[in-house]
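Figure caption, in words: inputs first, then the predicted bound structure.
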Amino acid sequence: MNETGPIGVFDSGYGGLTILRQIRAYLPEYDFLYLGDNARAPYGSHSFDVIYRYTLQAVEALFARGCRLVILACNTASAKALRTIQTVDIPRLAPERRVLGVIHPTVEAVARQTGSRHIGILATVGTIASGSYELELRKLLPDCVVTGQACPMWVPLVENNEFDSPGADYFVRKRIESVMLRDPQIDTLVLACTHYPLLMPKIVKYLPSGVRIVAQGEYVAEALRDYLIRHPEIDACCTKRGEAAYLTTESVEKFEESAALFMRTAVRAEHIDLHI
Ligand code: DGL
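Bound structure (D-glutamic acid present):
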């Protein structure tokens, strides 16, 4: 099938826009279709079954709009739904299409950067509970020590535009101190959630010296660029007018207001219903 269309970028809400922004900087000539399931976000503490069902609905909606390739920009969806979608649903539904996640490119960057091989993962409850980061890291660094730290308040702080407020300091400090106390040998902390880059100034403020932060946007963007070079048959199906369009399951007005914060520019969105 030679259908052409934009590259789909899916997230539970707004956070994936931080990934989209980086991807567009690396691949400015490509078209993108972003889908935020804002009405059902956050995904972070939903069960496996719910996240899988929601994510599959979103992927199918993006396929129906012509996307040959979909990026799950959401860590929680990448951790809990990607593998089943790749191995069970794609062969059945659309063998010529592809879905990629954010965990693999992030883990490759971490493996290149850590010296002590003691790594801290900051993420949602769901991503930490899945153990996906540890599993993937162990494939590259079998002797690494991985400490997962759930940060349940960080997403709501960002979603409610409180990421810059004095109240955010309390929650950021609490989680950074907690993970460093659990393993003082950590030399690399991974921001394994789409929303966390917006808390970067606070994170850096409480970070012990000598500990580096890995934010995933640039690594996901690099990996996508490499993927398109290695897969010219997929690349040929991606339209290239340098455009981006946005879909949200919430109200368009609400999305446009918050999305402008993440994209640092005005965006126009369209409503979509996913519950099938
Ligand atoms: N996008 C999610 C992630 O990267 C964070 C927001 C949510 O919990 O839905 O894990």
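The beta strands are 7-11, 32-36, 69-72, 98-100, 118-123, 145-150, 188-191, 212-215, 244-248, 269-271.
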